[in-house]
Write a structure and sequence with these properties.
337 residues, homotetramer, four-stranded mixed beta sheet, 10 helices, alpha/beta
């Protein structure tokens, strides 16, 4: 399967990400924002590309200068953007973010009527899924139609042609009409997925049902708190399809749970936290790099942890993903895998 | 499980059904319409109730006289309506139908912004799912949010408390933003279903993906034509979860396909076709009656066929469902099961 | 101006009107509905046509059998329907009505996402406004975009080419996001109108602002009760543009108020009330007939009253409008104008 | 009337305005954006406040950090923000802008489902219109419901209590479903306005109808090109109500047209153009300052031109409005009024 044209096709949201330059300032006192590119699958498309993989992105942008901004960046990075439609009458997504380490990262999504949720069956049929080794989708792409059905259709196609399917849970509660609809929808697609990536809160939101309670503090939609038992949630998810679940535990490292019951711990690399946003996508990039190289789970997760640790010291998401040699050196300098 | 309070909870759409009194007249020349109650799960709630089952309906109506019309009818029929919410700002669904036998039954759905698609998680949590032996959902209930997530959530709850789940495919292409989204969505819920009921076209629409072609003639949304191989479609559906698929073949009888590969033919009762609308729901009522009695598949399907044959000779849907003795007599008079 | 091709162009809503055949029955007990055509401007198009005027209707219908039903009827009546677009993805409007004389006429509008509110600038530009002596618009056509702007644009065009503009207030509170928006919008167009027709409640809803209170009983959206002083409201309306306001006072006859301060009373013709729905549009038809004939206000209003009285004894709207000789005979038999 | 509590109430949109820090860079190459506050009425609220007027702003923001950002700024500036509602489920508006002098200023509005278009009758009733000498509304506030009706209602209230009404045309074609709907709507409210402010293109868009052609280059929605004769447009507008129209002609100064036919030219102050965005709102601030001081039109327009010239040399909108003494000194240094 390594003779396929692309290593990984990533499907879902993209955005201009506006990161506060005034680190530590309360949101109302921010003076300027750096302009980056973001969105879970978009970040991972750049992250995997920088690590040397052949990445192709299936997102959508509007017919506006912000769309140009995103496409220009992807071009520069070498991510294949040939299958990205422009959606007239829909805006390219935008996110405005504050940075108040260590624990407040408020963010405001501009996603009403956005372009990337307009992906259709036709867009999926036009994309080179049969030419890819892995398809990655993200939870937010399942939040609304027509993207929801198109995303599941893409997964069905991937499975039909032997590509592996990775689901990044990407739980953003304000993108769902009811936070519980996230779980219902995730559980509906797990039968089609091989590998799931998420935080403890995301795993709980995906696996648990009636009694879950979701809360968001400091407008940090990327880090909703979800009630419930994470181990039970891991079991539920693995029972519904996937072979593997990679649980991102931030400063506590990563745990890889296998369907067999085995679990692998991968310690993190201790660094000073500047900005947690994007670190999860950096992890996914490194982890999938290892996965596609055929590495064992521990080594893949350590690679993911390294990429995450590098980004956590930096300002933004896609624009700050480490390159292959950079990540390997980083690990090397810290005692190796 | 027979000690549960209800035999069957039916979830999904309801409507005032306005049936042309001028049978055979082209639509523009219709002079008057009879007013009945309809909608796949609503029809089956009445059909099963008339056969003696304890039925409870989870639909929603608007705060309007048409809502009163539906609730009044359910009350009269003895279907439990205690869990039906009224949705302010949303209209009770309506359908206007022409009758031109043998083959034209144009229908017009008034379902924009309708009440029954507004069913929520809260409505599901309020409904007595744990007190039911069977939960029936229908495809149209999965066509839009919030009903889609609420319906899947109901199915998860039913499964968790040991109730059997029946899916009536109920494919109405104009209720979906893309006809292929129907299949994607159906396939997502099959893992949770025990028994599927549908016509050949519905089964194909649910099982097949990329190359399907859907067409509707004479505005007969209830009988869309779908391209593809029905046996392959049956296999696909059974491979994704259900134990049983009952294929309604109209005048050609019913075939019950089991996961084991076995298939049971149940001949129909030949009658003169007056109006095919509602016959499928009558079949479902009789079939589920047999299922809940613990009958074998052939006998259950024959009961379904009898109920369908009776309704096909009549004018409308819910209002014309046969009573238990009536159906048994009908079978008896025609040589028995 | 009498050499123009059409006497009157009517712009706005149309519908299939389903009238209870069970007169007097509470809504939930209705057994069947007669199928007619309705909608304020559509009714008047037929009413004026039957009186001998050359009428052209600018409404819109969906690509559905109900649209065929309406067009078929217009064709039969001889109303020009050449400029009526079909709006894909939008439903032909429908109304379901109960009849409980003397005072309950519940009605349920199916107008969510309806075709006739989709009239655009292009539709107006295609219509033969310069070839008409009179343009009639109705309040409901101003309730939502794009019809709102298109309707005002039509009025501007009519004024520019010397056609008279008639506004039928047609206040249906459930068609507005806020009942007060009706008044705001009506007042915005009065500068462009020559003649206003309405009931006391409609006149108050159009003229008064902050303190008005609107209530609807028995779901009779066609007869909302509006608080306030009707004479003050008449003055307000006449101060904002129109030369004439015809106040329909039901059984109490009609009062025609002129900008000059003069007011003309026209007594009604006493008949037994069978169904008030449509009587107002019959009045408008007769009144505009007289207006276009150049009759004095009293004679025109008496003609309107006669047409209204005839329809009030009948079952529906457009289908029951009187013909010219019929109305003149009716008046003659009752002592003349 | 000078004993009223406020000099001016401004109603309409507000936003976080993100201005490219990389002046001259093509949009896709922008590295960071300065964060300011903007939106026509919001800019003028700050502009008039800095000139010493007592300003009160009636806009709406979302329940998000961007809303905090705007309110925090208004607080600091001393603009009364007590009547600004937060709209749950609606986003605070945002604008992202590039700066490529002399003639390209692309901008991207994030206004889908935005908070400020959700202003209602209740919000207007809660605002201190009777306590204000002047009410200013802007064209964009008329683009959609519920803001459209609420804005006209505010104007009716202002007129009823003797406040003067100013309309800033603020034509942003992408905020209208059809560019011609702008004109239709503007003409509907002119009877209620005393003073109109706009550019030549805005005046043409407001006054002309069928044959106008609107085009936008370089995504500069703030500077649409509109076909037609500006003098004819000025006449049309003045014939429909207002006493005065102030035509902003950019580098060519300002012409004030009176209903009497008189026209007053006010030369501009030549400066180097850094960024035209916000200059028009600075003009309005200075012009209304003079108007409220009772100055003659020439002097008021020169004050407006001075404020505009100062802002044109600067980076943003509201944050760069000149203070009273600053503007007066600027004029003084350049030869006086």
């Amino acid at each position: 399967m390594t003779d396929r044209s692309f290593d990984i096709l990533l499907m879902g949201r993209s955005s201009i990400d506006l990161y506060a330059n005034d680190v530590g300032a309360p949101f109302p006192e921010i003076k300027s924002f750096a302009a980056y590119v973001g969105g879970c699958p978009t970040n991972i498309s750049v992250g995997t590309r920088r690590l040397g993989l052949r990445s192709v992105l299936l997102t959508a942008v509007g017919a506006d200068p912000v769309g140009d901004f995103i496409l220009h960046f992807l071009e520069k990075e070498g991510v294949n953007k040939d299958f990205i439609p422009r959606k007239k009458g829909h805006r390219t997504s935008a996110v405005i973010l504050g940075i108040e380490p260590p624990d407040k990262f408020p963010l405001v999504y501009y996603r009403d009527n956005c372009a990337d949720i307009e992906l259709t069956f036709e867009d999926v049929l036009a994309a080179p899924i049969p030419a890819c080794r892995v398809l990655l989708i993200s939870g937010t792409g399942l939040s609304r139609e027509p993207s929801r059905s198109a995303t599941i259709f893409a997964v069905e196609r991937a499975q039909a042609c032997g590509a592996k399917v990775v689901l990044d849970l990407d739980f953003r509660p304000d993108q769902w009409h009811d936070a519980r609809a996230f779980g219902v929808t995730i559980r509906s697609v797990l039968r089609l997925t091989d590998l799931v990536i998420g935080t403890a809160d995301e795993v709980k939101a995906g696996a648990l049902s009636e009694d879950i309670y979701v809360s968001v503090e400091h407008s940090q939609v990327s880090g909703a708190h979800v009630s419930g038992d994470v181990l039970k949630a891991v079991d539920t998810i693995l029972s519904l399809g996937p072979e593997v679940l990679a649980l991102k535990r931030g400063g506590d490292g990563t745990t890889v749970y296998l369907k067999s019951g085995e679990q692998i711990e991968a310690a993190t690399f201790p660094v000073e936290v500047h900005n947690v946003l994007g670190a999860g996508d950096a992890f996914a990039s490194g982890f999938l790099y290892g996965y596609l190289k055929g590495w064992d789970w521990h080594r893949a997760a350590r690679m993911g942890n390294a990429c995450g640790a590098i980004v956590v010291m930096r300002h933004g998401c896609a624009n700050f993903m480490p390159y292959e040699q950079e990540a390997l050196d980083f690990i090397d300098e810290r005692g190796g895998f």
